[in-house]
Specification:
Structural class: alpha+beta
Distance between the termini: 77 Å
Radius of gyration: 26 Å
Strand content: 15-25%
Number of strands: 21
Number of helices: 18
Mean pLDDT: 86
Helix content: 25-40%
Shape: globular
Length: 535
């Protein structure tokens, strides 16, 4: 009986033990490329074989079935989930797209497309990009890419994307339908930027606004260009919008903080059990060290966003407005593996200048509660009630000016703005979960293009467009043909959806800049920000 009990224990622990050694072994000998969560390194393992390594050798030598790459990946991910919520195994098939987002560019043709009725429609053409140079226009429909027919054959986003992307300077022949006629275009693929700045414009005569959606390899460069443009327009205050920004490359956020802080102030430091303390300090004179600054955050602002926000709050440099941030204060290094996959392994924690940890609590049992944290915050009233949002995590710290702040659970704002619950009503979700909205916006734009493009910006459109009710009636009629009724929804939900349609129409014309110029016109956090910079 004792022997059978031991065998059962081995069967239970074997996958986890095998995964642990497999992950450690695969990291041996791969290059380190330094840069925040993008770093890659050489991991030197001890020469003596551990019991875990012996287990792996025995499994490889004796196990009844082949150990596949998929099984290896599954076991690696299962093991990493027991460590922390952010260590992750990335299969080779997913790595390229994930890295592109942080690199800030990819090789392609420079169009946005959407599939309507099994047809790939061009909904935006990148200004100055390969497709614009070749002559493609909004409203064109893809019929063929090369010799591959892509119309009317259950085309998918993934398939059309794979057909259109390719090496830089390579050519792709496309056949398009325009105004009922077939036309062919030869497009020279090129480098397509993935902007990390969504919008940069003036909220009023003296207040600039910049929204950053992530921290990629190009973010600091984009930020400087945006801020310098605004300074030429004589701004004296700035609103920096980090809502929904899930982070990215640490050094990009550090460089931006340096533009707001003077001297050699500490911005952030990292430290782990096997990683000595590493400090990131100001290195240069910043271009916005004076002037009022407001930072907007919410429950989806994470990682590098929290580093930037925490530094500005600890030095009393900015007023933080919004809701408590996500609480992701773990540092990952990325290691390339031999099969083209990668391992992002947590190696340290972020600490703000005052010494507070950004990371919220988690367990080592699969992190189920961690993943449901935002839902729990909503259910407990934290997203809508200022009093509930004053939960104090960890011990107290002091800002430079003597204000009390707390660590261990994200960054708490100085000014609380509740979550708009109309965004998650059942009626609104029923509409937004369908493709009906995006289909309607595109077709409404095509049908009214001359009238809509007469506006010069999203700001002007937000102020002067007065056909919201006509647009809503057109949408209600369009939705009914798609088996979606919107006639019985509440007045509040109707107003929300009308604003949403108008904003998406702005994005159709002016991309993300137009989207946020329209959304911000009636945004509560923007209103609070303008009040703060005027005090």
């Amino acid at each position: 009986m004792h022997r059978n009990s031991n065998n059962k224990k081995i069967q239970v622990w074997l996958p986890l033990l095998f995964a642990l050694v497999m992950v450690l072994g695969m990291t041996l000998g791969y290059l380190l490329r330094g840069n925040g969560s993008q770093t890659r390194g050489i991991l030197m393992l001890p020469g003596k074989r551990s019991p875990l390594q012996e287990v792996v050798d025995l499994v490889n030598a004796k196990y009844v079935d082949p150990i596949t790459d998929t099984l290896n990946g599954d076991m690696a991910q299962a093991m990493l989930a027991k460590l922390d919520p952010h260590s992750v195994y990335i299969p080779a098939v997913d790595l390229s797209e994930i890295n592109e987002d942080l690199q800030g560019n990819f090789q392609g043709i420079g169009v946005e497309f959407q599939i309507f009725n099994d047809t790939v429609n061009v909904i935006n053409v990148l200004q100055g990009g390969p497709s614009e140079k070749a002559g493609l226009q909004v409203g064109d429909k893809f019929v063929k890419v090369g010799d591959s027919v892509v119309a009317g054959n259950k085309i998918t986003n993934a398939r059309i994307r794979n057909l259109l992307r390719g090496p830089g300077a390579s050519k792709v022949l496309v056949t398009m339908m325009r105004n009922g006629k077939l036309q062919q275009f030869t497009i020279n693929r090129g480098l397509i930027p993935i902007p990390s700045i969504d919008a940069s414009y003036k909220l009023d005569s003296s207040t600039g606004y910049i929204r950053i959606n992530k921290f990629s390899e190009t973010t600091y460069e984009e930020f400087m260009a945006s801020l310098e443009k605004l300074q030429k327009q004589k701004i004296s205050q700035l609103v920096l919008d980090l809502r929904g920004n899930g982070g990215g490359i640490l050094t990009e956020a550090v460089d931006i903080a340096d533009e707001f802080l003077d001297g050699n102030k500490l911005i952030v430091y990292t430290q782990g059990d096997k990683m000595p303390r590493q400090e990131y300090r100001c290195k240069r004179d910043g271009i916005f060290e004076k002037g009022k600054l407001v930072v907007l955050v919410d429950e989806n602002s994470a990682s590098a966003s929290e580093v930037l926000t925490g530094a500005l709050q600890d030095w009393d440099r900015a007023t933080i407005i919004g809701r408590r941030t996500f609480g992701k204060g773990l540092v990952q290094e990325q290691y390339d593996l031999s099969d083209g996959a990668a391992l992002r392994l947590t190696v340290a924690r972020y600490y703000t200048p005052s010494g507070r940890s950004i990371q919220k609590p988690y367990t080592h049992d699969g992190n189920g509660d961690y993943g449901n944290d935002l839902l729990k915050r909503y259910q407990h009233g934290e997203l809508v009630n200022a009093d509930s949002n004053k939960v104090q995590n960890g011990k107290a710290y002091q800002t430079k000016g003597g204000r009390t702040v707390y660590g261990g659970g994200g960054i708490m704002p100085d000014v609380f703005v509740p979550f708009d619950t109309s965004m998650i009503s059942a009626s609104v979700n029923k509409v937004l979960n369908r493709t009906t909205v995006s289909n309607f916006v595109y077709q409404y734009y095509v049908q009214n293009k001359n009238e809509l493009t007469a506006y010069h910006s999203g700001v002007e459109f937000a102020q002067k467009f007065d056909k919201e009710e006509d647009m809503w009636n057109a949408f209600a009629n369009f939705a009914s043909k798609d088996s979606l009724s919107v006639n019985s929804i509440s007045a509040k939900d109707k107003d929300f959806l009308k604003d949403h349609l108008k904003a998406l129409l702005g994005r159709q014309i002016w991309r993300n800049e137009g989207l946020y110029e329209i959304l911000n016109a009636d945004d509560e956090m923007i209103k609070k920000a303008l009040e703060a910079v005027k005090k």
